[in-house]
Amino acid sequence: MQDSAERVERGKPRDLLNGAQLLSGQLGKTIQRLRKAYNLSLSELAEQSGVAKSIISQIERNETNPTLATIWRLSQALDVSIERVLASSDEEPFLERSSRADTPILLSEDGKVRLAIIGWIKTVEWLQWYEVSADPGGVLDSDPHQRGSVESLSVSEGVFEVDIGGVVQRARTGETLRYRCDRPHTVRCVSDEPGRATMVVIMKAAVME
C-alpha cells in the first residue's frame, strides 16, 4: 500500500505539468481565435488589455503560462468572462444572443420613427446598424456623421424618402438607398401604411468625391 501511494505521489507533478500545458495550449488557441474574430491585431489587443504584445504572442504560441491577472486583462479586452476563456475549445463557435429587452430603442423627435439598435457595441465606432420602424409621415432628422461616412437604408415594408441637402430619392419595398451621411440628412416614411427598413451606417468610410 505504501509503495502504491508513493508511486501516486511521484506521478502527481508530471500529471500537474501535463494538465497545465494542456490548459495553456487551449488558452492560447482561444485567445488567438477571439482576437481574430474581433479583427484585432496583436498591437491593438495589447493596447486595449495593457498586456505586452510580446506576452500575448507567447501565450498564443503556448510558450508561456500567463498569470490570472493577465488572463483577466485579456478577457476584459475581448469582452468575455474568464470562465469562457479558460473553458473554450478551439472548435467552439462564437455565438451570442440579445433578447428583445436588451435591445435599446431610439425615438425620433416626432415619436413616429423607432430605431432598434441591433448593432454590436464592439463595432459602434466604425459600423452601426438599426431596425427601423415608422408610422406614416414619420420623420427622422440626423446630424452629420464623420466625414466620408456612408449610410444604407434597405426597405422591407412601405416607402421611405431620403433628403440630403435638397436632393431627394425614394425607395420602396425591396429597394435600397445609399448616401453620404456626413451632412444633415432626413429620412421620412411617405407611405400610407407603416414602414420597416434596415439602416446600416459605415463610419470613417473612404471619402466619396
UniProtKB/TrEMBL annotation:
SUPFAM superfamilies noted in UniProt: lambda repressor-like DNA-binding domains (SSF47413), RmlC-like cupins (SSF51182)
Can you say what this protein is called?
HTH cro/C1-type domain-containing protein
* Gene3D superfamilies linked to this entry: Jelly Rolls (2.60.120.10), lambda repressor-like DNA-binding domains (1.10.260.40)
What are the residue boundaries of the HTH cro/C1-type domain, all occurrences included?
A: 31-85
User: What is the organism of origin for this protein?
Assistant: Methylobacterium jeotgali
Q: Does the keyword DNA-binding apply?
A: yes
Q: Which residues form a coiled coil?
A: none
Tell me where on the tree of life, at the top rank, the source sits. Answer: Bacteria
Q: Which UniProt keywords apply?
A: DNA-binding
Q: Which Pfam families does the protein's record reference? A: Cupin_2 (PF07883), HTH_3 (PF01381)
SMART domains given for it?
A: HTH_XRE
